[in-house]
Each structure stands twice: as C-alpha cells, then as structure tokens.
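Worked example
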Amino acid sequence: METGLIFTDYSPLCDIMAAVERYRNSCYFHLVFKPTAYQPTYESCWLYNRPAEEVMPYGTVPDPYDVPMPLQYVRHAPCGIELDEKKFEVVWFMEGDAAALLYDKMLLAVIMPSSKTGKYHKFSRYAIGKAPYAWEIENIREAMTKRANTCRRIWKKYGVYGDIRGWMLRQAVPAYKFVGEHLQDYNIANEKDRRIDNGGTYPPKVIVTGKRNGTIYGVTAGLSLPAMPRTAKYFPKDTKNERHTEIGFAVEERLSAVCNTAYSEMNRIAVIPWTDYAPIAHGHTIELNGFEGFPEAVLLNPKYYSGFEAPEYENFPGDCHVNMLWIIPITEKEYDFVRLRGSDKLLERAVDLGRVHIFTGEPKFNV
C-alpha cells in the first residue's frame, strides 16, 4: 500500500509544518517544528489504523513511527480504514503553533499547544477514551470546532490571506494619540511579507514616534496582530489576554541620539516570540544591545499599575486584550537583582514608578 506524506501545510507565523503521513499500518497527523533543521522535533497524533494483511506490534515493524492503535481504543472498523488525502484541511490556531485537522470539513484531530499544567493535548475522532497515541475528541469536539471556525475567519480577515495593513492602521490611531507631536514612522511592513523568514519585517508593524513634555516616545502599531506562540504553555489560565502585545520605548529628549538604536532593538525584540517559540510578557528580561552601561532590559506592562501611561489599543477580535510592554534598560547590578529576587521586587525599588519607563541614562532602581 502507498505510504509517505500525503498532505502538508505550513504555519503562517512559525517555522512549523503540519503533515499527514501514512505508514504501512497506521496514519498520523504531525506538527514538525523547524522541519529543515538537522533534528526537527515532532508532536504526533494518531488518526486511524490502515487495512493491513498483518498488523505487527510496536517494536517489530520496520518503521518505528508506524504504531497502530490497539483495537480496544479504536472507534472505526477493526479491519482499518482509508481516507482521501484531497479532503484534508488544516486550520492553524491563532498562536501558529497548534492546529486542527479537518476531513471533509469535519473535525478529525487536534494538536493543541503543550501546557505547563501537563494536560494532554492530542485528540482524534477515531480514538476511544484516553488511548495511548491520542485521546478521544468527543468531549472537546464542539469547543474545538467553534475555535477552528473562529480562527479561520480571523485568518481570512487579518492573517496571511487578509488585511494586515488594516489592522496596523487601526492600532496606529491610539498610538498617534498617545505619542503627542508626531515625528516619524518606521518600518512599515510590506503587505506581501507574510512569514517570519521574509527579511525580518514580520510580524507586521509600524513604529510610531512623537514627543511631548520633553520625552520622545516610540510605540508599535500592528505587532499585536499575530498571537504569540506558546502563550498557552506559559499562561494556561488567561491565554487569550496574554497572546497579543505591542511594545514601546521612551527617552528624555536630550538623549534623542539613542532613538535609532532603540528602534532597532524594538525590531529585534518584536520577532523573539516567533524565533524562540516563547512569548514576551511583563517582568521578562531581555539582552539589550547598544546601550552602554545597560546590558539588559526588563519589560513592564502598565495594566498592572494604576495611573501608568500607555496607548489605549483596540482589543483583538474575540475580546482579547492587547497588552503594552515598555522596554526599560537596566544595569548589570539591577539585572543581577532581578535574577535573584524577581522583576516584581525590582519594581518595588523604583525611584519613580510613574516615570520608570522613561530612559534618562541613569539607573531607575535602588538596588
């Protein structure tokens, strides 16, 4: 019988390939992370057993990946089934690191983001109960079907097939309102630049800059369009309100010479979630280049502090909050404090919390 890959699709955000692969005795749905790497990693979900003259147990088949499901966990006919490869469709979830597999427009399997809580995250229509290579999908079928349909609509409107620039312009409105006297916009992404590997301008964004009250502000608009990968792993209780973010940098006008360096660093930081497969969030520290005496930065989310200034960005469809992260340069001594005590303790030692996000060339914390 025919074996090998029968269907592939690529994440619009991450270096991940979705694949359906037939083996001699079984068929599996894979998510392949960094598929061109020397040793790519796999998340695999059993789909169905194939008709075979002889089904050999695991360990005796020529291909160690050809693992048929034990029959007591199989919902389809014991003799096996075949599905038409022309009827497969992948719908990527908003983070771009998980997906639903549809067959003839019906939910067939789901590989969800892995979670720190250890919850199982691979489900198949033909599995029964908590089977070895996939769990039964019935208990989550309705919710996952709804989620897949929502993701399809959002991708069509804003994603790789839709109006990227429209979202950038909508988020630019609160950005222009916030920065004061408009100075310049930087790094408007090409509408055709849809993937992370196309020259570094994805995620789509514009850095809006302006000045008011002696401070120069640079804030992104549009970065919040793609959901950050692996958000569910790090924020399982409130995933939807942590996966969309914009970033910003503020500096006293007398130090305007650092602005170009800062905007270059904003560009670099913006892409980290899609190169490192980890979201950026409040309290995280990130290596900083080009700031003498400030080798690191801590990220601060104003939503955790009353009265803290930030643009009032529009929520993402589905009532998902769009976060704002200020990039705050810190000294090596401040960074050592963060490593030992945590970012919350560092912020408790701010000289002036209301202006801690404005770079002055001096340390911001009493440590």
